[in-house]
Amino acid sequence: MLEQEHRILVINPGSTSTKIGVFDNEISVLEKTLRHDADVINSYESIIDQYEFRKQTILETLDHEGINISKLSAVCGRGGLLRPIEGGTYSVNDAMLEDLRAGFAGQHASNLGGILAYEIASGLNIPSFIVDPVVVDELDPIARISGFSMIERKSIFHALNQKAVARRVAKELGKKYGELNLIVTHMGGGITVGAHKKGRVVDVNNGLHGDGPFSPERAGTVPAGDLVGLCYSGSFYREEVMKKLVGQGGLVGYLGTNDAVKVEKMIESGDEKAKLVYSAMAYQVAKEIGSASAVLGGKVDAIILTGGLAYGKDFVNEISERINWIADVIVQPGENELQALAEGALRVLRGEETEKEYPGKKADKAALK
Ligand SMILES: Nc1ncnc2c1ncn2[C@@H]1O[C@H](COP(=O)(O)OP(=O)(O)OP(=O)(O)O)[C@@H](O)[C@H]1O
Ligand SMILES: CCCC(=O)O
């Protein structure tokens, strides 16, 4: 019997661009990065206000590329800073739209993903979804304890790419994702290291403004007492300190660039500081992988290195040399978030998984019971 064809539009909004894709089942028929002029983006007061502009840009591009949107079966967007939820494919409902519009857990370009998917899909009377948003939270209770009773550790990470790569590697190993223990290390502008225990991310560093290794533009864990001292030095506003941690932290803070390719060139031309800092980033990633292996009790089927930094051969080698005694290291450079969004929607359209319902405020009520 011929397999039913599903045509899916996927939308991944980033801070300066919107990536879109059209997939016929798993096959990509169009992938485009729509770059937005910084002046246009900055002319909106908040990220949410960019909605109409981004929607029009997407629709005009699809029209220009000859994609007839009336033939779409579903629209799937990258999920944003919602309430903590377990991984999976969620249909966009009113509770989700409310939280995305309000920026429940903060402003992030991916908040637009679910809204754009819903608005395009509802006009066509087809379903809209989000898949594995950055707030996927499958932490074991023990991983939530920070050591400071007023602050709980949070799960904010590259869930979409981590889970997609983990599923792909499991398939290559002839296993199901839920049968394996994997350490997945996403190394992009931010770096997150997830301990995937039989299909659940039971511990991971909060890569947005939390803990873990420093990254091209984020500071990761910093000595707490010194940070408090800096905050109360009278020299900085709150926003300035936050910027130093996220955006201007990591490689940007030490070397003035978030581009690892440039840093590699600096090292080639004999820059000793660049060499030390780049090695320190590899060292911190390796340490985080070591802690994830302790979380998994040393029973690790594979360690996966992914994201843009995984293209850097020397960087990958430096990490591997420190951790390859734990398990095989599998390198899957780059990220394939558009494909991952399409696959998440497909699993539901084909009935392989049931779509999940975003609980919104109901989750708070359930927690109070
Ligand atoms: N060939 C390469 N060699 C080394 N580093 C590379 C290479 N290509 C890209 N990178 C680096 O990867 C980093 C960006 O990775 P990526 O594109 O995954 O990040 P992002 O999508 O901007 O952020 P995030 O993944 O956190 O959402 C940059 O520092 C970039 O210089
Ligand atoms: C860590 C969550 C995704 C991001 O880098 O913004």
TrEMBL record:
Keyword annotations from UniProtKB, A to Z: ATP-binding, Cytoplasm, Kinase, Nucleotide-binding, Transferase
Top class in the EC scheme: transferase
GO biological process, one term: acetate metabolic process
EC number: 2.7.2.7
PROSITE patterns membership: ACETATE_KINASE_1 (PS01075), ACETATE_KINASE_2 (PS01076)
UniProt KW Kinase keyword: yes
Family, per entry: Belongs to the acetokinase family.
UniProt xrefs under Pfam families: Acetate_kinase (PF00871)
Reaction(s) this enzyme catalyzes, per UniProt: butanoate + ATP = butanoyl phosphate + ADP
Superkingdom of origin organism: Bacteria
PANTHER family in the cross-refs: ACETATE KINASE (PTHR21060), BUTYRATE KINASE 2-RELATED (PTHR21060:SF3)
InterPro entries: Aliphatic_acid_kin_short-chain, Aliphatic_acid_kinase_CS, ATPase_NBD, Butyrate_kin
GO cellular component term of the entry, any: cytoplasm
Single GO MF descriptor: ATP binding
Subcellular location: Cytoplasm
Official protein name in the record: Probable butyrate kinase
Coiled-coil annotated spans: none
